[in-house]
Write a structure and sequence with these properties.
It is elongated and about 60 Å long. 34% of the residues are buried. Helix 2 (37-44) packs across helix 3. 44% of the residues lie in helices and 19% in strands. By secondary structure, it is of the alpha+beta class. The protein starts with a helix and ends in a 22-residue tail after the last helix. Residues 76-257 form the IclR-ED domain. It holds the Pfam family IclR_C.
Length: 276
């Protein structure tokens, strides 16, 4: 091997190490924020000795944190993440994601935020089907009706209590107007990490929603797929849960957000689940 070839090989060696470090970091997700060495090895496929050596060094550098046999992404990473996401706008991030969801499912994808006791559509990629739900940027909807509202209330106990204390006026025959039943549905959404609804805001219309979080673990928006129940029966909504939750997690990570630590909170007070 010539000196030049040897130099090229030496220059490429750090990239191989960086690739392995990236694989280890990619093994973590919002759904699996802590892993054992064995789980990291299984997720990456790297040799056990390599995982042990790299993880030890990454812990020493603050890239990972270790507590007992559990390993997490290190707090030092949050400082870098903060500079990376500074100035990023939620709408700029979600626009291409909404188009991807629309193209994969064929249905309308949108984002809702809580504003002054209502939920407001702030971004949308409309279905190309002629038969579609009435939705547009700026549309205002009561928080108690539909899957997106349930998501926005599930991680905001104070807002949930204000909504539950106010009259729940029916929008359709399927609107949940019982505070007890709505409380149970909010609690279920928080436990599941998503919500599905049908006919609550509009007859013969379905919605599937998942939360987007900021760096403090606060819910900032609900990512939603919506469409006619004819094309989105319960079975189809359930089939899209992993897809939607995955995209919501992607947006959360791009924002530098994190899943909050679960706590019971007022919105998750135990209550019997509604029948059906």
């Amino acid at each position: 091997m010539s000196r030049q070839d040897g130099g090229a090989a030496a220059n490429h060696q750090p990239l191989l190490v960086l690739g392995k470090i990236t694989e280890i970091l990619d093994a973590f997700s919002l759904a699996r924020p802590s892993l054992t060495l064995g789980e990291i090895q299984q997720a990456t496929g790297l040799p056990t000795s390599t995982v042990q050596r790299l993880v030890t060094n990454m812990v020493a550098q603050g890239l990972l944190d270790r507590a007992g046999d559990r390993i997490r992404v290190g707090l030092r990473m949050s400082y870098w993440a903060a500079t990376a996401v500074k100035g990023l706008d939620l709408l700029a991030i979600v626009d291409p994601v909404l188009r991807e969801i629309r193209d994969e499912t064929g249905e309308t994808a949108c984002v809702f935020r809580a504003e002054h006791g209502f939920r407001v559509c702030v971004a949308i990629a409309e279905t190309r089907h002629a038969l579609r739900r009435d939705m547009y940027v700026g549309k205002i909807i009561p928080l108690y009706a539909g899957s997106a509202g349930r998501i926005l209330l599930a991680w905001d106990p104070e807002l949930a209590e204000r909504v539950l204390a106010a009259p729940l006026e029916p929008l359709t025959e399927g609107t949940v107007t019982s505070p007890r039943e709505l409380r149970a549905l909010i609690s279920r959404a928080k436990a599941d990490g998503y919500a599905i609804s049908a006919g609550e805001r509009e007859d013969s219309a379905s919605g599937l929603s998942a939360p987007i979080f900021d760096a403090a673990g606060r819910v900032v928006a609900a990512l939603t797929i919506s469409g006619p129940t004819l094309r989105m029966p319960l079975a189809q909504c359930e089939a899209w849960v992993d897809l939607l939750v995955g995209y919501a997690e992607q947006v959360t990570r791009t924002l530098g957000g994190r899943i909050p630590v679960a706590d019971p909170g007022p919105a998750a007070v135990s209550a019997p689940a509604p029948p059906g």
